[in-house]
Amino acid sequence: MIRKILIICGFIYFIFPSVIAAHxxxxxxxGGHTCRTNCDNWGLDYGEYHFHDSSDDIIDYxxxxxxxxxxxxxxxDYAYEYTSACETDYDRDWIGSQAYGEGYEDGIYDGNYDxxxxxxxxxxxAGMEAGEADSxxxxxxxxxxxxxxxxxxxxxxxxxxxxxxxxxxxxxxxxKEEAVEVIKTEGGIADGSEDDKIQITSAITIGSIxxxxxxxxxxxxxxxxxNRRNND
Length: 232
Description:
The chain has seven helices and three strands, in the order ααβββααααα. The protein is rod-shaped, with a radius of gyration of 38 Å. Strand 2 (49-52) and strand 3 (58-59) form a beta hairpin. By secondary structure, it is mainly alpha-helical. The termini are far apart. Helices cover 65% and strands 4% of the residues.
């Protein structure tokens, strides 16, 4: 009796080896599943998603990891190139495996974010430099700035406002006003004579010199004030 049972068991093992060899786990609609038990025996990591072919040999789909990484790098570089130049209007299509697409979308998200940080910082610095320069030249502060397309308007305006030195502007404006008064006083009422032309020319020269001196004083004052602030 025992002998017959052993023969029957051996026959079943020979005919249906997959019943004995397969490890548990139902497959999904794609024909794969996640390893939960006895994963070491099959050369798998616990939680690793994999497939089986008809002969029950495990098909290694680890290349999908490389697809994801390739997609991520491609998406990141693509988005970063645009947004770092303050350009947010670009196509986001991709062609490849599902893993590649997932990596591409994640790369787009991160590259878009990091690129915008560069855009905002560059725009802010450019605005600050422009504001500082205008204040020294005695240009009246205005919120309606002419901003180039490759800068972020909000960041540029913020930098301009913080870079604009009102004390330097006041000094430059006073110098300009004094120069105008000198021209009016020294020039008098011109009647077209050679003496009047000489007087007006002299007044303009004096006014220009005063303006340059005033701007130089304002610049030195601002530079010293900024150095003291940095040292603090």
